[in-house]
Amino acid sequence: HFLTEYTDVTSRGVIAARFIAVTGTGRMDLTIDYTPSERQKVMHGTIATQIFYGGAAGGGKSRAIRAEALALCLANPGLEAYLFRRTNKELEDNHIRPFMKEVPQTLPNDEKLYTYSAEKKRVQFQNGSAVNFCYCENENDVTRYQGAEMHVLLVDEASHLTEYQLTYLRTRVRLGSWTPSDDYKEYLPKIIFASNPGNVGHSFLKLNFVNAAPRETLFYDKSTSVDEYPGHLSIYIPATMEDNPYLETSYAGQFSALEPELARALREGDWDAVVGKAVHNLDRTKHLLRTFDPPRHWTKFMCIDWGTAMPFSVGWYCVSEGGELAAKNGMPEIWLPEGAIIRYREWYGWNGRPNKGCRLDSQSVARKILDMEKKKDEIMDYRVGDSQMWAQFDGPSPQENMRRATDGYFILRRSKKDRQRNYSEIVSRLAGNPDYRDDGEEDIPMFFVTENCTHFWRTVPTLVLDENDPEKGPNSNQEDHIYDEIAYALRSRPYINTEDTRWQQEWGEEMRKAIKKSVDPYATQ
């Protein structure tokens, strides 16, 4: 078996620029051209078993995870490491060829350090350890690894994989009957995600690592907790171009020709920069309000985007009659124009995991909504519901169940489903009314969201445009339930003046039917 010693020992002593291999024929130097940077040393030395090493392009992420895989394989006979990229070409160009170049296959005494199978894309070391190079180009490619026992999972450019792919692969990480070396029992099994900002996995990585705790601070990942287990001990390690001593100084300038959001994401590793941002004119400095209770005489309404397996989203809105919202708790005074719509409260029906619903039934949701409004002594002028709530699948529709469960008090208008027009409604209200100007000669927005709407600020700013039809706004493969809800809400009071009267006619007929039944649609329990 190969054993290893290290020069340049870090806090845990698992990586170095130079290995000393002990083979059957004696000791010999195995020189690897790798001197870890300060950030790379943090990654190699942390006691965390789940690591996110993310940030700017050129931060040395790919090189670091290859070095970690090599060190763990040499120090732990029989270890199975799996290194992923999204596509086969990326895997070949960015990892397989560089690995062969960096790590000599034959030692100076002509002994083989490892063999490589091009068919299996597998590096097999003489001590029984292996690095398996893998890719998941399509969503369900991860099922090829259903029976795999991954002692170490390394995913490069993890944001190129979907949340489903990342979470599925994570379930394959276990030790099984294999036992690591004594020095590594506390640190294995291990998961390492490395990535730049952007792409389909951006929101998952940002929520679970970047936003979960201060950078380079250990925390337990609650999404992996079960029973007495608190979750994987995790850490987010930011990577910058300055961390890579081998990167030429002109490299950062190559991003200047890109669109500003993409340049900032890649050059600075900014996880708040969204490439291809759908709601491009949403700005916290303009559209964020402090939490407040609207005046009783203002028009108020509620909107819901329905979901069970996926989250439902309930938002409460009010229509400004004009006036100043006073400064408070460090938030500045702000003018709310007449006719501006404010989303001032929310209820997000998730189970604590991104894009996963709490599976609450429609009757319970309706009763809970009325109970929340009763506690605030509020009366809604009307309610808007996702048109899908009128669909019947072997029984009453969700909106019918809601109405029955509340003795007819919970009545919904049917939402508008025109995605292109809904998108225009949102960006137009965010842009503001040219008739209202502040002292800086900028248009004042006609849509605001309060700071207590935390899931709005978590999900909506990170939505990206539909690449096939960007005029329709974000694609539907994201956590867009709050976006849909606000689209339905704003279309109920159109800001774009080309709206026809059919909406009012449909609602008027629905109200007339309710009145005939002697039901007050605005009453509360």
Description:
The protein is of the alpha/beta class. Helices cover 26% and strands 22% of the residues. It contains 13 helices and 23 strands. It has helices spanning 38-45, 61-75, 88-102, 163-170, 202-210, 260-268, 284-287, 362-375, 398-405, 419-431, 454-459, 481-491, 502-516; strands at 3-6, 18-23, 26-31, 50-55, 80-85, 114-117, 122-125, 130-135, 152-156, 190-195, 219-221, 232-239, 288-289, 299-305, 312-319, 323-325, 334-336, 341-349, 382-385, 413-414, 433-437, 443-444, 447-450. A nine-stranded mixed beta sheet has the order 6-7-8-5-9-10-4-12-11, with helices on both faces. The chain has a seven-stranded mixed beta sheet with strand order 13-23-18-15-14-19-20. Strand 9 (152-156), helix 4 and strand 10 (190-195) form a beta-alpha-beta unit. It is elongated, with a radius of gyration of 28 Å. The termini are far apart. The model is unreliable at 1-18, 20-24, 497-501 and 514-525 (pLDDT under 50).
